[in-house]
């Protein structure tokens, strides 16, 4: 006997236009510039007019086929920016010199590929000092710098940007190969998780940066940022730096031609729909970036006055809730974006860090807690290293509420051994 079973399932169908609209959101302004030119070549109904500001200003001699990386000079590259951060840390001169050495041995993407054994021999240091130094290095911006491989790089970013997403962190730690082969069913069975949840987490992982320092070689005062924030009459004003994008208009001439051709009506209709989609998507990208930046300013005003030291704890979810979008929209929109501020140029993701409550009701950045934890451990008596509970007690005396369990979690994220394994005789 045959039984027919009708099963109803929800399925999200992603059209090509929707995929492109999502991609458009994470484009840098120069990526968008190139994309508009591609659309112009493919769609006869799109006309573009170059603006004099882009090619008539300091970039007038640049070939338009060059990428933005080739346009700007490398006056202040990755090493200089990382060394500036190291100089602001409260640590011994010997530790800073170790960090200087590590920075000068990073590859162009920010990975530390020199092995521990070789580093210990070259620097004449023991395991504990090397672990401490690497933890300091991995605490610098951008998140992921100093990673030893892709897995560690993505894990550091996953913990930083999505600290409460245990599924995402498990996927990065244990299932990168399965994700690469799209074997979601295997992951679902292994983790006992819904496939849709895994797909959502996989989408978040794809927004992480496997080459965290690739852009740092080019962030300098000659860089054309995507967004600019400056003070005018004691108020912070936001402006998208997109004046050099070509002006887009509808080609009446080509439209009349296509309409006269009997067999081109469907092609005309598709071309017209794509023309409208391009205009709408660019405008949506503009409004989203402006809304996100204004929400960041409302929380991070002190940053724009005093710099990194005044950075407040902030998560992508908080900004998403503030402007009424999904958290993944914030992740995509801030990817590949550079912002010029009164205190310098920064990757847009510099503003995001999870937060912890202090005993006086204020909040402190989770990253600041981890930096302080490194300092506490580096200063401990190695014959009697601090237990996780002791570190928790030290934080409590400093007015920061960090449970023993949280200390253990952060210590593991920083690759710091337990007190038993840190003990020296």
UniProtKB/TrEMBL annotation:
Protein name as annotated: RNA polymerase RpoN-/SigL-like sigma 54 subunit
The RNA polymerase sigma factor 54 core-binding domain, residue ranges: 68-252
Annotated ranges, domain RNA polymerase sigma factor 54 DNA-binding: 266-424
PROSITE patterns associated with the record: SIGMA54_1, SIGMA54_3
Pfam family for this entry, one: Sigma54_AID
Family per similarity comment: Belongs to the sigma-54 factor family.
NCBIfam families from the UniProt entry: rpoN_sigma
């Amino acid at each position: 006997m045959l039984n027919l079973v009708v099963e109803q399932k929800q399925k999200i169908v992603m059209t090509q236009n929707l995929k492109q609209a999502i991609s458009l959101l994470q484009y840098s302004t120069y990526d968008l510039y190139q994309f508009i030119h591609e659309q112009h070549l493919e769609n006869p109904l799109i006309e573009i007019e170059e603006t004099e500001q882009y090619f008539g200003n300091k970039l007038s001699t640049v070939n338009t086929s060059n990428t933005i990386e080739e346009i700007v000079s490398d006056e202040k590259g990755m090493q200089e920016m990382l060394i500036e951060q190291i100089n602001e840390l409260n640590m011994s001169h010997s530790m800073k010199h170790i960090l200087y050495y590590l920075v000068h041995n990073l590859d162009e993407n920010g990975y530390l590929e020199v092995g521990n054994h070789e580093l210990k021999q070259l620097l004449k240091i023991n395991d504990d000092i090397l672990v401490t130094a690497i933890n300091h290095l991995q605490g610098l911006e951008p998140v992921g710098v100093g990673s030893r491989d892709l897995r560690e790089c993505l894990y550091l970013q996953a913990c930083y940007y999505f600290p409460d997403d245990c599924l995402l962190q498990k996927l990065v730690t244990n299932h990168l190969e399965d994700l690469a082969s799209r074997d979601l069913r295997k992951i679902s069975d292994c983790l006992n998780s819904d496939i849709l949840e895994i797909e959502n987490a996989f989408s978040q992982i794809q927004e992480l940066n496997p080459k965290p320092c690739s852009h740092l070689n080019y962030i300098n005062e000659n860089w054309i940022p995507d967004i600019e924030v400056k003070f005018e009459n004691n108020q912070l004003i936001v402006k998208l730096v997109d004046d050099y994008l070509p002006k887009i208009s509808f080609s009446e001439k080509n439209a009349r031609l296509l309409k006269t051709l009997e067999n081109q009506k469907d092609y005309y209709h598709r071309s017209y729909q794509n023309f409208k989609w391009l205009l709408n998507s660019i405008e949506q990208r503009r409004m989203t970036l402006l809304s996100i930046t204004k929400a960041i300013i409302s929380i991070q005003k002190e940053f724009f006055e005093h710099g990194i030291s005044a950075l407040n704890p902030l998560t992508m979810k908080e900004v998403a809730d503030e402007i009424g979008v999904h958290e993944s929209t914030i992740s995509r929109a801030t990817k590949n974006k550079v912002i010029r501020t009164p205190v310098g140029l920064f990757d847009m993701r510099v503003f995001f860090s999870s937060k912890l409550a202090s005993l006086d009701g204020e909040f402190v950045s989770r990253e600041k807690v981890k930096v302080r934890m490194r300092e506490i451990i580096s200063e401990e008596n190695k014959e009697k290293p601090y237990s996780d509970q002791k570190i928790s007690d030290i934080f409590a005396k400093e007015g920061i509420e960090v449970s023993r369990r949280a200390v253990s979690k952060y210590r593991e994220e920083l690759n710091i051994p337990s007190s038993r394994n840190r003990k020296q005789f």
